[in-house]
Amino acid sequence: MSDRRSVLEDQKQNSQEKFYIPQCTSDGRYHRVQCYSGYCWCVYQDTGKPIPGTSSKNRTPNCNPVPTPSRPIKANTK
């Protein structure tokens, strides 16, 4: 949490520099919905990685249930 506060303070002082700072829960996981500059998207709470296909502009996406990562289908080469 202190890292986040430090970055937010730096951003206030250098207002011309804008960058995304993830929202986290008190236990250190990522909030399921992340938003920045009008866009919101779902993330995996353990990794913070965006869930493909969940980004939306000017609205909060429905992240329940969390989509499971798809695995590529291997072609049968025999």
Describe this entry's structure for a reader.
This protein has 78 residues and is α+β, with helices and mostly antiparallel strands. It has a domain at 20-61: Irregular (Invariant Chain, Chain I), CATH 4.10.800.10. It has one helix and three strands. The protein has a three-stranded antiparallel β-sheet with strand order 1-2-3, with no helix packed on it. The protein is elongated and about 60 Å long. The termini are far apart. 4% of the residues are buried. The mean pLDDT is 83. One of its GO terms (cellular component) is basement membrane. Keywords: Disulfide bond, Glycoprotein, Repeat, Secreted, Signal. One of its GO terms (biological process) is extracellular matrix organization.
Give a nutshell description of this structure.
Helices cover 15% and strands 13% of the residues. It is an alpha+beta fold and 78 residues long.
